Structures are given as C-alpha cells and as structure tokens.
Amino acid sequence: MFKMDRYNRHIILSEIGHKGQKKLSKSKVLVVGAGGLGCPLLQYLAAAGIGTLGIIDYDIVELSNLQRQILFGTSSLGKNKANEAKAKLQDLNQTINIIAYPVQLTFQNAIELFDQFDIIVDGTDNFETRYLINDACVITNKPLVFGAIYKFQGQVAVFNYNNGPSYRCAFPDKPKTGEVPNCSEVGVLGVLPGIIGTMMANELLKIVLGIGNILSGEIRYYDALSNLNQIIKIQRNETVIESVILNKNDFQNQKMNNICSSEVIEVSIEEFLNRPNIQFIDVRERHEQPKIINFNVIEIPLSVLENQLDLINRDEEKAVFCQSGIRSKTAVTILKKHQIKNCYSIKEGASEIIGYINKSNKNAIYE
Amino acid sequence: MKIKIKYFGMLTEVTNCEAEIIDFSGVLISDLLEMLFIKYSDLKDKKFRVAQNNELVSVNTKITSKEIVLLPPFSGG
Fold it and tell me: Which of A86, A184, A240, A317 falls 20 to 30 Å from A60 in CA-CA distance?
C-alpha cells in the first residue's frame, strides 16, 4: 500500500507500528506561528503523518526570515506564512489535511479554534501571544508544546499535560513591553530554532504516540554554544491556574497589545505612563493640536524626522505618538532604519493620550 | 560558603559572565538576590526565576545547594 510505504520507517519500529501510525493520522495539531520554530516542526509533523495540521500566522515572509525559516524560499517573499507553509507542506505530504489560517490569533478567536484540535504548539515570537496561548490551553484543557529562543539558547517544555503545570506556573506574569527583547530586535543563530523546533516536534509525537518521557513539569534549557542542557523542574501552581479559569468568561473581552512580528511595535499609552526614563516623541506637524506640555515630550515632525535624529536619546526607551497612531508607526519604521532601538508606536492619538494622562494625575498642562 | 551561580539568556548581558563563584553568608534565596542586585544593579529590572537542585524555587527558600541558576523567560521564535 502506498500510504504504508511512506511511513514504513515508523511502522517497523515496535514502539510505533501500524497502531501508532494510526494514532498520528487521527491526531489534530494546531501550530501557532510558522516562523523559526514553526518551519522545522511543521515539516516533521507533516512528514510524520499528523492527520490534521492547522497553521495560524498572519505575518508575511520577509527576506530576513530566510536565514532560519527553512520552509520558505525567495518565491515566498511577501506571501502569507500560513498559506505558504501549507503549500510547501502539502507537496511534502498530500495525504494529510492542512488548514491555513492567515489571521492573527486573538482573545476572540483562540478558544473556538483550539477546541477543534487535540494539541496546541506555540512557535510564536512574543509574550503577548504566548500568554494568550497558555491561558486558552488552560481554559480549553489542551496540552501545549512550548518552545522559545534567545540568541544561542532555547527553552522547550510541555505544559498543561495530564494536570501538569502551565507556563504561568513557571513565569506567572507577562513581562512588560521592552522588558525582554524579541527576536526581531536581537540576533539569533539560524540553526537554533531548527534544533528547538525539532525538539518540540519530538515531544509532540511522543504525546500522540504515548511513548517515552514527556517534558511535562520541566523546562529544558539548551545552549548551542556550550552544548549545555539543563532540565529544571517546575511545580503546578493551583492558584495561578485557578485564576486563569476564573477569568474564563472575561477572556474573550481582552484586547491584544503590542505584537512584534511586524516591524513596528504598537503599545497603549497606559503601559508607559508610570515608567521612568521614557522619551515621548510627538511626530505631528508643529501646528497640530492639542499639545502636551510639562510632560517629557519632544516635538519632531515626521517631515523633518530624518534630519533631527540627534535630538533623540539613544539610551532611553522612546514612545512615539501622533494624531491617530498612523504616522507614529511610520516614524518608528524610520527610526529603526537608522538603527535607533527601543522605539514604540503609541496606538492612541494625542487627544486620547491626554485623557489617559489626566486619569493618572500626571499634572500635565494643555493648551 | 562558596556558591556557583549560573546565568541564562539576557541575564549574562548584565553580569558579563555565564557563571561565577561567589562568597555568600546569607540563608535565603532572597538574601542572595539582594547581594546580586548590589553587584549588578540592572539585574533588578530583569525578569527571571531561581532554581536550586534543578528545581524552580521561591525567593523565601533556604539555600541548600552549592549551585544556583537564574532563568529568564524567552519570547523569541
């Protein structure tokens, strides 16, 4: 039989056999993020014959992705990652059902989507989505295969598996914007997500097959430079998990903050009001109202931004705003082009920002 | 007593080393952190958890191991 030939090297393993291969073909796996981690793990999951493979990613393939996102080629540039991954994987294995979701995972669509799958895989690149995925897995009671990378190091774990701990049991609170950098801001050795993504695929296959030891209740740290492996035990924290479940009804009303996968990070002004050492940059033209005075704001109109880069403090974090949150995004793109780091685009316009400042009693004076 | 401290991820950018041996006379993990925060003032602003004997522990835990690991969360993918 054609299908048996394809999986022959699985089937002749006594630990897998026909029975195991059938388990794989009946399983439904959702991979969130078809990036550095998603590409290698999707290839192994498709090749292994995971019966239904969902891929959700709203991002497009950029040239700088090709150094590590090995599903894509030059012809993929500018195309949606989920759709492009599906096309490549379907060629690898036409016998499985691959569903591409070229949309952003949100608090509104996560629960309904996760309900359609058995296991969720987190290959995203930002904390906002990682905490969203974890909480949605707790609420829908789905095991979560987790991987994350930083420069030359990676983490792998399985959360929410057989009453094991969740990601929040290790790291209860989401870091604030800028507290921990994302991949788009720091470098990463191209092969590292390949190693970590493949470890994730391995955990996933073991869960489906019911063989081996699962990395549940543990996080594995791996360092590609020193070859160091450290497996750290984590305990389930009932209080943390209960509070996620208690907030279940409110889950879909939450809003996404700063997602980093596009170049510009959009942030709500609320995140910055009480933080020290922030330089606010008003990129509106000089005549535009209302002005914000007595607040640490410098005015550099977008039209002259590139000529006045020396006014920008390179050491501090920069929060850029305008009248509606559109020009501020353009401004951040320009600043990034000039290697100016730690710039965020405020998604609210000036009037809304004043409202927030008033609320937090910052004693700003307005004209 | 001498304790080996290992740092992962972005913490090494604050400490400029991946591991070090320090002289320590306190009792709790929090005592150790207090000492490290004086040595590395930027460490205070970093998010991380502490592990001893390869297990995550709270800051109120008594130090029983000669090796302590500081582990930050990673977000990259």
Answer: A317
